[in-house]
Amino acid sequence: MVSAASFVLTKVTLESLAVSDYSLAVIGQYGFVVTDLVLNSLANVTEKGFWVMGNGRALQKLTSLTIGSCPGVTDVGLEAIGKGCPNVKNFELHRCAFLSDNGLVSFTKAAPSIESLQLEECHRVTQLGLVGVLFHCSAKLKALTLVRCYGIKDMNLVLPAVSPCESVSSLSILNCPGVGNSTLAVVGKLCPLLHKLELVGLEGVTDTGFISLLESSKASLFNVNLSGCINLTDAGVLSMVKLHGSTLDVLNLNCCKKVGDASLTAIARNCPLLSDLDVSRCAITDAGITAIAHGVQLGLEVLCLAGCNSVTNKSLKALKKMGDSLQGLNIQNCKSLSSRTVDKLVDHLWMCDILF
């Protein structure tokens, strides 16, 4: 099929098939116009298959590559793919148990066009691999995402005098439990021009590491997600608002249980462009809601207060005041809001989508 359609076949997905190394070799030799390739759960494909595919040299037009749950993905095979697919822009690796720092860094060196790199459950990759990627990435890398990579843990690395990776504008570290203050400090120095920052479920991160990253930043943050960073406090949020409040558009503090009214007061005073705010399950009270209602936000469109049990009926007036701009309001599991108050909100904010 691949050889017969070698000049018309642009997208290929092989998933949960009993194919062998031979199939990948054919793709590497005949995929002349393939731009999108997905290889998922190919249990019979070995290191040789990926190595041969990379060395086939036909995948010159490949721009998007996703590989998941393939035991044949090793350092050797990944480096060959990097060399053989020079125009890949978007690359995702999921559950590749045998990939190590060496293979990841070798791939990064060999792939000059990578713009977006995502690693999920690649547990042999450590902080050294992360730093290596940022050291050696091309000037085109814009987005780096790490999801449930348990091998990345804090190390006391001393960085040599190298140029930072100024092309990276988006960094997402999601549910990597070993990531703490040391990792954030290193990443902050290597990625000083971030516009989007996602640090989700990082219980080892405290204000110290977060502020260190913020202070290394030379750009303005637009989108920040700190959901599940349970050890961040008002001090970290206040530092972020002081440095980046004027440009923040989206802010997610869901489950930051040590964040309270002081943060909302600072946000109200310093974030004029904020359109989406999530403070679900935070330690906020009616005073914080009142501060937001009288703040500088002229276009707050989405406000999430789910699980904020200290928000009471006293916030009714403040919530009504925000009705001119609000398009979405989440007050689910706000146990101190009575059904009567909710009914009044629904009547008054009739143009707003309210979850209760």
UniProtKB/TrEMBL annotation:
Gene3D superfamilies (UniProt xref): Ribonuclease Inhibitor
Designated name of the protein: EIN3-binding F-box protein 1-like
GO CC terms in record: SCF ubiquitin ligase complex
A single BP term in Gene Ontology: SCF-dependent proteasomal ubiquitin-dependent protein catabolic process
Source organism superkingdom: Eukaryota
Organism of derivation: Trifolium medium
Family matches, as InterPro entries: FBXL15_LRR, Leu-rich_rpt_Cys-con_subtyp, LRR_dom_sf
SUPFAM superfamilies: RNI-like
F-box/LRR-repeat protein 15-like leucin rich repeat domain span: 44-157, 191-346
PANTHER family: OS02G0200900 PROTEIN, PARTNER OF PAIRED, ISOFORM B-RELATED
